[in-house]
Design a protein that fits this description.
- The chain is of the alpha+beta class.
- 23% of the residues lie in helices and 30% in strands.
- It contains three helices and eight strands.
- Strands 4-3-2-1-7-6-5-8 form an eight-stranded mixed beta sheet.
- The two termini are 23 Å apart.
Length: 144
C-alpha cells in the first residue's frame, strides 16, 4: 500500500446472518497505519493496526475479519431491511475522499457482470478490500 494513500468506503457489518435489520452500514477507513470502522452515529466500532487484523474472504463475498478477538462480517451492501448510511457517514466519506491522501474512489474495484447485475458489485468491493488489507499487512488466509 502506498505510504500516501488511504481508502474509505461505506460497507455493511452483518451482525446477524438472519436478521437484515442488523446489517448496519459502517464507514471503513484504511490508512497506512490503521484500519477503523465507524457506525451510523460516528462511534468507533474498531480501530487497530492492519497488521493486527486476520481474516478471509468467503465464496459469497463476505469479508470476515478478526479484530482483537472479535469477528466482524463485512459485506458490500446491506439487506432490504438494513438502515441506510447516516448523513454523518456520507459527510465523513465525502471529506475523506476529498483528502489529498485518498486513493481515487473505486480505484481498485473489479467485479464481474453477474456481480454487477445481481449484487450491485458488492462482492467486487469486498475483494478489493481483501486485496488492500493484504497489502497493508493484514494476516489473511487464501481466498475462499
Amino acid at each position: 500500500m502506498s505510504e500516501q494513500r488511504q481508502h474509505a468506503e461505506i460497507v455493511h457489518w452483518r451482525r446477524s446472518l438472519w436478521r437484515g435489520a442488523l446489517c448496519e452500514p459502517v464507514l471503513l477507513v484504511l490508512t497506512p497505519i490503521e484500519l477503523r470502522a465507524h457506525d451510523r452515529a460516528s462511534r468507533i466500532v474498531f480501530r487497530t493496526s492492519p497488521a493486527e487484523v486476520s481474516g478471509r474472504l468467503t465464496r459469497f463475498g463476505t469479508l470476515r475479519l478478526d479484530v482483537a478477538g472479535r469477528r466482524y462480517d463485512l459485506v458490500g451492501r446491506g439487506a432490504g431491511l438494513s438502515p441506510a448510511p447516516s448523513a454523518e457517514q456520507e459527510r465523513d466519506l465525502a471529506a475523506l475522499r476529498r483528502s489529498p491522501a485518498s486513493a481515487p474512489a473505486g480505484s481498485t474495484n473489479s467485479t464481474g457482470a453477474v456481480d454487477q447485475l445481481l449484487n450491485a458489485g458488492a462482492a467486487g468491493r469486498m475483494r478489493a478490500w481483501y486485496a488492500r488489507l493484504g497489502t497493508a499487512g493484514a494476516r489473511l488466509s487464501r481466498l475462499y
